[in-house]
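Lab manual, section 2.4: Encoding a predicted structure.

Procedure: take the sequence of the chain (481 residues), apply the prediction step described in section 2.3, and record the output as structure tokens. A sample record is shown.
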Amino acid sequence: MRGRGTTPGGSPGGVSAPPPPPPPARGSVVGGGASVVTVPVGGVNFSRLDPLAFKVLLESAQPGTTAITGEPQCTVATYSVKYNTVGGAGEATDASAAIIVPSGAGPSCSGSRPVLLYAHGTNTDKTYDMTRLADNTEARLVAAMYAAQGFIVVAPNYAGYAGSSLGYFPYLDAAQQSADMIDALRAARASFAAIGAADSGKLLVTGYSQGGHVALATLRAMQALGTAEFKPAAAAGLSGPYALIQFGDSVFGGTPRQGVTAFLPLLIAGGQHAGAGIYGAASEVYEAPYAAGIEAGTIKSLPVALFARDSLPQAAGFGQYFGDDHLIKSSYRAAYLADLAAHPCDLNPAAPLDCAPQHALRRLFRKNDLRTFAPAAPLMLCGGNADPTVPYQNTASALAYFRANGAAGALTEVDLDTIPGPADPYRARKLDFLAAKAALRATQNGGGAADAAVEANYHAGLVAPFCLAAARDFFQAVLAR
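Recorded output:
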């Protein structure tokens, strides 16, 4: 029985409550549009970096950078644009992106330019921002490699970063992160006219590490849309974890990787927010010193060891990831391994996801594994076969799947850690990478210290710039056809 003066919906006065307003359109610009971001060089803030000023910034931050990127050819200006997008559960949120625009009199700097959509690598700092060329190594390298050579760069920060209202990172969430990339590109395109960026209509997609996964997820999402709005001319995945369930199974199977105690909690948290039901309480997964802090997002330091010292199996050479101070409960690992034994995946390279895991984390890995489509655009995958962070098997497995499933676009594989033949189109990049690795070893006088230095710097410090350079070579070759 209802009280007097109310409607079935419970509103007073006999008037129904109005429906909530619809969420803002995805990809729409928030605020007054793109705003210029100044870059400090030598104590002076520049709204536009001419080639000389940019070279000073590059070489002062890391001497020798322009030997890899090439001399800056164009003046670059960096802008920030905020846009509407979605979180891992489809909730409305916001994010921001850098737009780095080339200009100048040179033929590669003026007129209509190709657009490079770039996905950044893993970072746990919520303030991470691709507009900050002075103190963000990845942003500076991408700007030097692409914008200063005549590409319009659009580099999303992702939801959860750089002032986004989302309180978590949808880490390696293929559906969310590809939507975020698409929304950033929409917002950037809506801003181009106001900031003097002339889009040639040629779209290129790439990213490194986490961003390699995001780039391929974005290529897949754009193909699935099947519209003229997004037609990538080419894409390049760089050292990404594309074969995610294979990667996860190898970690729990006894071969954890460098940085695993940082990226695994990110992935689990993202899945939990997206409704994957990884746990009822974090203490089901994590040991007591870490469970509460991880769930609250307050952990500042995590152990190197993922599993208990006596937890089996353990592959030879991976002993540092097993110890008394460890992250994952042995009972949780045992449940994962039981599901792996009962429901194995990767039995057929042409159909690696023809499996039905029941463990929630394995289901999450399978859901975000990118071996599900055949690229229609030319695709390069680049990495190094000795990568201690993201195993090269991700690249090999993805390429095997794409080849077996009729990829319409040409596939190019670049393993930097091989001796190139005289006709190898990426010979210079491979030789430069091998030289950089040897130079780093020489600083440590050889031996175990040299091996440790190469391992510590391999993924982010050594491979990244040379894969970015190889991707630029690949894109320029595609554009020249």
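Check your result against the sample. The mean pLDDT is 94.
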